[in-house]
Amino acid sequence: MAIELYSNISIQQALAWLYGKDALGPCGYDGDLGEPGSDSYCRQLIRRFEAEYGLAVDGGVWGWDCQRKIAEVLTNGVQLTPHFNSAELGCGIAVSDNDDPAIHSTNCLHFPEMINHTALNCLEATRCDLGSGIQVTSGVRCPDYNASLSGSSSESLHTAGRAFDCNAMGACSLEELLEIGLRNGFTWGYVGNGYVHLQYTGSGY
Ligand SMILES: [Zn+2]
Ligand SMILES: [Zn+2]
Hints:
It contains 6 helices and 6 strands, in the order H-H-H-E-E-H-E-H-E-H-E-E. The chain has helices spanning 8-19, 41-52, 64-76, 117-130, 143-148, 174-182, and strands spanning 79-81, 84-85, 135-138, 163-167, 188-191, 196-199. Helix 4 (117-130) packs across helix 6. The structure holds zinc ion (2 copies). One zinc ion is lined by residues 138, 158, 163, 165, 197.
């Protein structure tokens, strides 16, 4: 399977991770980037991204040059929230992940999908409520990597950047971590073999 270019919503999520949600303009996550070549908030942001990262600046069109670059930047590590860095959340680079290219989708690039802001904010809130560190053992996954894991569902929200497998590094039991996660915005979860799966299925991006 091959990963496609991000949806407009995912492009807006990527831009918001770099420049803040307010930079998307008053419409926020609306899935509308504006006309190519126009001065809409999103087309201007894409051009800013291209200029800052040494890409050819065009009409603000999101192409593979942009997607490869954002994946590289996030793989190298961007502090997304006070306690979580993109380098610990990518496909094949989170703690328990396998980075053998043979099992990843073409153009996975560690970020086959954007990390959902609301979901990561739930994890940040869980971390703050717990009061100590949370280790993410698996974050976003491409479809082929996800399928390689025993017992995984093709509908897994890991492939949507909305689920995290994690542990509290001994600070509390997995059952307690699940409970803390569910009271901090995650909509569902379960205790797995040595990890807690937490996911967010709400309407927030
Ligand atoms: Zn992958
Ligand atoms: Zn999981």
